Amino acid sequence: MSDAAVTHEGHGHGHVAHQFETVEQQREAGQLGMWLFLMTEILFFGGMFTAYTVYRELHLPAFELASREILEAKYGATNTAVLICSSLTMALAIHSAHTGKKKWQTMMWLVFTMILGLTFLGIKLRFEWYEDYIHHFVPGLGFQYRPEWSSLGSQMGQVQMFMCFYFFMTGLHALHMIVGLGILTVLLIMTARNRFSPDYVAPLEISGLYWHFVDIVWIFLFPLLYLVGGRYPH
Amino acid sequence: MSTASLELPPAIPAESRVTYLNAEYGLKSWLLTKDHKRIGLLYLATITIMFMFGGIAAFLMRVQLLEPQGALVEPETYNKLFTIHGVIMVFFFLVPSIPATLGNFLIPLMIGARDVAFPKLNLLSWYIFVTGCTLALIAIFSGGVDTGWTFYPPYSSNYSHTAVVWMAMGIFIAGFSSILTGLNFVVTIHKMRAPGMTWFRLPLFIWAMYATSIIFILGTPVIAITLFLLALETLLHVGIFDPSLGGDPLLFQHMFWFYSHPAVYIMILPGMGVISELITAFSRKKIFGYSFVAFSSMAIAVISFIVWGHHMFVTGQSIYAGLIFSVLSFLVAIPSAVKVFNWTATLYKGSISYEAPMLYALGFIGLFTMGGLTGLFLASLATDVHLNGTYFVVAHFHYIMVGGAVMAYLGGIHFWWPKITGRMYPDMWARIAAALIFIGFNLTFAPQFVMGYLGMPRRYAVYPAEFQVLNVLSSAGASILAVGYAIPLIYLFWSMRYGPIAPQNPWGAKGLEWEVAATPPPPENFETIPIVTEEAYNYQPLKGAHSV
Amino acid sequence: MQERDQHYDIIVPVRTYVFTFLALLLLTALTTAVAYIDLGPFNTVVALTIAVIKMMLVILFFMHVKYHQGLTRIAIICAFFWLGIMMTLTLSDELTRGPSWEMNPSPWSALLPHIPHIVRFLF
After folding, report:
1. Chain B residue numbers touching A59 (CB-CB < 8 A)
2. Which residue of B lies nearest to C113 if distances are taken between CA atoms?
3. 0.90 cut: is pTM over it?
4. In contact, C97 and B318? CB cutoff 8 Å
5. Which of A198, B71, B208, B357 has its CA 20 to 30 A from that of A44?
């Protein structure tokens, strides 16, 4: 921790809501609240991860085939990189506000984060989901089994099961991204209105926690969905 | 802080000073309030309405079961009745009951804070809850749901054709309300205790609410995702529980019960917290074994998450998993028993009085014990094979939920009524109602243990004639119970307008909410934040009494 | 009285963020590249290990947990531990139901049917 600097927050600076005694108490409460919310998100996504794990253990060959034949690692890897960049820009946005930089700097980093988020969604929608849809890989929307999958025999249904998981999990993740973009918009407006200062960055900090969490979910979704059976020649 | 004495401060009429009730008037001041006390009352009104819907469903069920061939409705309708009764009572009454009403009202007062950590979030959670209730009522009035409150697929997803998705979404949304409430409580208890209020000086109600909030945070998201997936499967006609894709219906059950078993502890833990407050106040004695009771709340919260498979012993779950879950289920009985022993030891040589809240508390101890012991029959694999799916199970959980949780809820409402409204209710009527409830409850549910043991299945609209006597007894008890519930509704409403003004501390109870905050409290709870110097329940022995 | 979780006002230098970012990109490239090599069942192990490392980097540095003690860490550990409970006990049923369920066992779950024999042998 020797390279990190500690700021000293003035007592009574910033905005203290009536139920709190000090700014520190308010800030700690806000952080704890967001971490508790992220705990609920871990269990929320975790339910689907559990279900996925169960079926993967029971039906591995079908899952491997589905992952390898239908999903394209290049889009998954690119999107992973995009989100990692967005986590950096988010952290830099908070850093900028916390060190008292001009507001246009903070806004710039927030805008970069939003652009990267939109890029993620754009790649997903156009190159993955849309392509899956026209190739009949979407369960419930005209899913078709391919003849070359018949080596799975009676297990062929699990290919559709895998795609159910793919769309449910990435869909839920995308929903969280969209909410994140909404939050970033609000933060952008707040920054423009000079609401933040080195003494008061709490909304940026806790939104950052949310954004990083959404990144972490994708960090797990990428290998679990795209790299299941390995991409080596089978 | 004043020590307990029998001389209570003179009553200052509430009208002549500012309280949270008269600080602002008008619908908007209530619907846009950020005051935890008003939000608690908003919840009280909402869940009372939902209780009535759930109660009507129960009433219709008991009428149906007066006759072996069914006295009232077709089996298809009966299926909807028990589903509606279960869903409403679990998700829209019991889960929020004590936490959202008494918890919201009391937690800041008991710890010496001015409000919860996130008051606006608190109000939002009420609106979210109302939205969930609305969706559930839409589901009921657009044809109902007939899957049982457990929603097992593939029946619920493929064959039911009732308003499953509406109901699932209603529960999903109400779940967010629970999560936000739990989150608010955990942050409040961690970060906003008054100076000197260490963890081990907290009232045990706070410990119970903290443990409950942990369950809210860790368990509720799982039912949320489970119902969400069920809704998707129902709508898309394909999904992860679908056997034709290699899906496993038991996976739904695992995910469902991962929440729903801890949920039953969400429903009972706050009640246990209330009982700790009532037993100490009405024996005028400090709790026996404070830290054991506090830690037992946490132990219940933790162990509750590793026992869910006992709902699935006969579903085709593997025998090895069954063994593990059975052993763990026996384990969870231990902290509950610790509490019962400690409450009993608190009563010993206490100075006991029998006001209505104490009647509810004493009733709780007996009935919860019976419910808990009968749970052991169900936790044991071999006996569960016989008893599962029968009225024995129904009786078991009603002893805990109604004989336990609802009695604790009513006891708490009565105990803190003067603090909430500034008025006293008529004690004679309260005691009559408590007695009627106790008698009606036992007459309703004790026969169900017998009929379950003798083999009568649950969720059946018709039954073999040999069970009729027991069913009629049960239905008769239900009618007495209904009267017993109606009476407090009447006098509590009456008391809000015509009840005698309550003194500052009518029970002479210990606790910041009684000794420091005014009755009823002002909007900011305390003029100055108190500094806590003594332990909880520091009742002094009365003059001439023997000390233990 | 409230609990003190130290260093909420820590300012992490930009250098730390950039190094974390580069490490994350590197690990992403690594996990993608390893997927093209045949390691049998260890493909999954490597991929998940790298994912956990990436997660720890995000948590410790981007989310500042390296600089917070106590409550934050307990909260995160609890959430993952509870997720572990859900997975473990659910799998304890799903993977031990017997031969008809294990039509395509993954290499790991192929070990499970032998556990009862081991238990019986020991007792």
Report:
1. 246
2. B320
3. yes
4. yes
5. B208
